[in-house]
TrEMBL record:
Organism listed in the record: Microtetraspora glauca
MF term (GO), any: acyltransferase activity
Organism ancestry: Bacteria, Bacillati, Actinomycetota, Actinomycetes, Streptosporangiales
Record keywords: Acyltransferase, Transferase
InterPro entries: Plipid/glycerol_acylTrfase
The protein's name: Lysophospholipid acyltransferase family protein
Record flagged with keyword Acyltransferase: yes
PANTHER family (UniProt xref): 1-ACYL-SN-GLYCEROL-3-PHOSPHATE ACYLTRANSFERASE
Keyword Transferase: yes
């Protein structure tokens, strides 16, 4: 219920202020399970990524968004519930398997699952290597995968900047469904999972126009922090 309240109150205001644009909405099925696999450039993606679609988009988010205390914790829970986020434990191992099962349950209910294969926001606007969880979801659920590309959200609201820049129009492109039926039944093969994931990331690269980096975004963030500390210690 909260999702639709947010949708029909905040979204019209965002459209009026930022004039977002979209392409390829006809590629998203009107019913049945769907995986929207997107790039992740900005906190603003939570607002603009699903706004145009008439269907509810459910995404998986870290459990910490829902466990905070006080007023800040309450606001965080309300916001992420309002944008359709389901809390998951992202600590790895059994937690990762539980997150996968949660995603499969969402798809089994014929809903739309939004997922960011990079696992975290891009630190510099480039597209980073995807994690293979999206491939397992695609092969086990056999749901169509729609590449879901955010455009200009990094420039409008880069990580670390809580206030968006006005005058930059964010956009969303929905690509044509990707067919992985040739891999059905092979979700236990790591090479297959990597091939499927890389195909999804290639489609996102073409849709978004981003430069691709063959490393994980989380690793890139660690390297950037280390480089910044080294630079400050020598200055």
């Amino acid at each position: 219920m909260l999702y639709w309240v947010v949708k029909y109150t905040i979204w019209p205001l965002l459209r009026l202020i930022f004039r977002p644009w979209t392409q390829g909405m006809e590629n998203v099925p009107a019913e049945g399970p769907v995986i929207l696999a997107g790039n992740h450039l900005s906190f603003a993606d939570h607002f603009f990524g699903a706004g145009f679609l008439p269907r509810k988009v459910i995404s998986l988010g870290k459990a910490e968004y829902f466990t905070g205390r006080g007023i800040k914790g309450m606001v965080s829970r309300a916001f992420f519930s309002g944008v359709g986020t389901v809390p998951i434990d992202r600590s790895g191992g059994k937690a990762s398997e539980a997150a996968l099962r949660t995603g499969l349950r969402i798809l089994k209910d014929n809903q739309v699952l939004g997922i960011y294969p990079e696992g975290t926001r891009s630190p510099d606007g480039r597209l980073y290597k995807g994690k293979t969880g999206v491939a397992r979801l695609a092969l086990e659920s056999r749901a169509p995968v729609i590449p879901w590309a955010m455009v200009n959200t990094f420039e409008m609201m880069p990580p670390g900047h809580p206030i968006p820049k006005f005058g930059i129009r964010p956009g969303v492109r929905y690509g044509k469904p990707l067919d992985f039926s040739r891999y059905y039944g092979m979700e236990g093969d790591r090479l297959v999972l990597r091939a499927v994931t890389d195909e999804i990331m290639y489609a996102l690269m073409e849709l978004s126009g981003q430069e691709y980096v063959d490393k994980y975004a989380a690793s890139a963030k660690v390297e950037m922090v280390r480089a910044a500390r080294a630079a400050s210690s020598t200055s």
